[in-house]
C-alpha cells in the first residue's frame, strides 16, 4: 500500500479525534460513543465506495482505509500498555487502598461472575462447546468505564465513587485477559487439551511472574532516570519505553502476564517516582503521559470501530438471539454484584456504602469497548480456532459492544438525570453559593487594586464598583440567609473550604519546592481525606481524618516489629524519617490556615463558625506538636536538621526567583542565567538530600546510653543489664495508671512519654526515668503516664532500684533534679524515704 495514502489516513484519523471531543460535548454524549460511531461510518463509507460503480476516484482512499493493517497485536502491544501505564501513573494509590474491597469485587469477582454467567447461559441457549462459551464470557466481561467516569465528574459525583470506578477499569482488563488466555487454550485446534487443574496452575506464574517483571523493570528505569537528574527529556523518554519493555519481556521471555507487568511497573513508578524525580520533571512526565493516553485511547476506539462492519458480515438471525442472551446474562451478573454482594460487604463493614442511584448508574454505565473488540479480533485471526467458533465470537462480541455503546451510552446521561444524580444536593448547592460569594469578594479586592494602580477614571470606577457591589451583596446575602443550611451544615461547609485551602497551600509549597514531592503526595492524600471526611461526617468526620493523619500506620508497626525481632533497622529508619518530615510539613501548612479562616470563612459564615474552626485547627496543631515532640525526645537533634534543610530549600527558592526576575527584566543575559541556574541546581540537589536517621540500638548499648550510668564499669553495667527488664509500648498506651501502687521504676531507652498529674503535664524522652517518686515516698500514684511514640523501656523493680540509688551519686543527682522540676524538696524526699525504710 502506498505510504503516502497510509500517512494521509492516519492524519485524517487524528483529525477525526480532534473533532470528536467537541462534538461529544455539544451532543452531550460519551466521547467513546462518538468515536465508535464515526469509526463505523468511515468503515461503512469506504466499503460502499469500493463496491459501488458510481465513482472510482475515491477507491484508493477507500482501499487504504479498509486495508489498514489492523491486528489484535496492534491493540495489545501498542495501545494497551500506554493506557494501563497512564492509568496507574495518575492514580492516588493511597486513597485507592482505602477502597480496595469494592475495587477488587468489581474488577475481579465481577469479571469471574460475568464470565461464568455468560458462558453457561450461552451453553444452554446454543450448540457451542462450553469452552467457547466461557471464552466469549471472558471477552465481554471487561468494561470500559470511561463514559460513566467522565459523566460522574461532570455532575460532581463523590470522589470516592469515581475512584472505585477508575480502580475497576485498571484491574478488570488484567482479570479478563487472564481468563481469556485460560479458555483460549481449550478451543484451539491442534493443541493438546489442557486440564482445568493445569490451566489454573499457570495462574500463579502469570500473576507472580508479571508482577516481578514489572517491579524489576520499573526499578531499573528509576535508577537510570535518577542518574539523568538534570536531563528531563531523557527521563521522559525512558518512562515511555518502560511499559512496552515490561509487557514484551513478561509475555515473550518470562511467559507471564504482560498486563500485570505493566500495571506493576506503573504502580512502582507512582509510589517511588515522586521521591526520585524533581517535581517539575514529574509534572511534565505526567502531562506527556496524559496526552499519549488520550491519543492511544482514541485511536484504539476508532480503529476497533473500523473493524465492526467486517466482523458483522456473516451475521444470522439466530446470532441476534444469542446477542440478546449475552446482554441479559452480562447485565444480570453485574446487577448481582452491585445489588447483592456490595450491600453485603457494606453490612459487614468491609466496603463503603454506595447509594442505590449510583449503583444503577454503574450498572447501566458498564460499557464495553476496544479491549473487547481486540480480544474478539485475536480469536478471529487464529487459524487454530474452528471457523464457526471464530464467526460466533466475532459477531457476539461486536453485537454486545454495539449494544452497550449505542443503547446504554446514548441513554446514560438521561438515566443519570432520571435518578436525580445531575442535581446538586442542598449542601452542595449551598457550597456553590459560598464559592461565588468568596470568589466575588476576592475579585473586588483585586479589581480595586488594579483600578488604583492604573489610575482609571474615578466616575467609571465608581459606577462599575456600584454594579459589582450589588452583585456581591446579593451573593453574600444568599450565602448567609439560605434556609436550606442548618448550623451544622455551615460548620461542614467551613471545614470543606478549610481543607480545600489546605490542599491548595500544599500544591503551592510543592511548586516552590519547600516541601519534598514524596511528602507533598502524602500530605495531599491527608487533605483529600479531610475533605471527604467533612463532606460525609461533618465535624466528627473531619476530626477522625485529622487523627488518622498523625497516627502510626500498619507499615510503621511492621517496621517496629522487624527492628525488635529481627534487628532490621532500615525500614523503621526510613519510616521514622518520613514521619519526621511529614509532621514538619503539616506543622508549616497548618500555621497558614488561621489567616484563611479570618480572611474568608468569617466573612461568609460568621464569627461563631470561624471561632469553632479556629478551635478545631488548634487541636490539630496540638496533635501534630505532640507527635513531633515525641519524635524530638526520641531522636534529639534530628528535627533541627530537617528544619535547617527547610530553611536552605526556602533560601534556594527565593534565590531562583531573583535570578528569574533579573532575566525577565533584561538585567542578565541567557548565558549568565543558565550558568547561575546550573549552580543553583547543584546546591538544590545537595539540599534535597535528607539527613540520615540512625535508630539502631543494640542490647548492650541500651544501658550504656543513659547518662545516669556513664560512670559504671563494665562489670556493673553487665549486672545492671541482666536485672533490667525490657518493655515495648505502642503510642497511646497507658504505662502507669492513676491510683496504682508503686512497684518499679521505668528508664526510657527510646521513645517518649507524657506525664499527667494534678492538671499539669510534661514530656520525657530518651535517657530519662519516671516512677521513682512514688517508690521513694511509698504513696499511691496520682500520676498517669502514657506513650506518645513507640517506646522502649527498661524496668527495674523497687528493691533493686533502692540498692542502686544508694551506691550511684549520678542517680541521686537525677532524682533530685526530677524532684525540683516537680516542686518537691529533694532533701525532704530522701529524708522521708529513709524514714520509710
Automatic annotation (TrEMBL):
GO terms for biological process: regulation of intracellular pH; sodium ion import across plasma membrane. One of its GO terms (cellular component) is plasma membrane. It comes from the Bacteria. SMART domains: cNMP (SM00100). Its main location: membrane. Keywords: Cell membrane, Ion transport, Membrane, Sodium, Sodium transport, Transmembrane, Transmembrane helix, Transport. It is found in: Cell membrane. It is a multi-pass membrane protein. PROSITE patterns: CNMP_BINDING_3. Gene3D superfamilies: 6.10.140.1330, Jelly Rolls (2.60.120.10). Residues 708-822 form the Cyclic nucleotide-binding domain. The chain crosses the membrane at residues 6-24, 31-50, 74-93, 100-122, 128-149, 170-191, 203-222, 291-308, 320-348, 360-380, 392-416. InterPro entries: Cation/H_exchanger_CPA1 (IPR018422), Cation/H_exchanger_TM (IPR006153), cNMP-bd_dom (IPR000595), cNMP-bd_dom_sf (IPR018490), RmlC-like_jellyroll (IPR014710). GO terms for molecular function: potassium:proton antiporter activity; sodium:proton antiporter activity. PANTHER family: SODIUM/HYDROGEN EXCHANGER, SODIUM_HYDROGEN EXCHANGER 7. This is Cyclic nucleotide-binding domain-containing protein. The lineage of its organism: Bacteria, Pseudomonadati, Pseudomonadota, Alphaproteobacteria, Rhodobacterales.
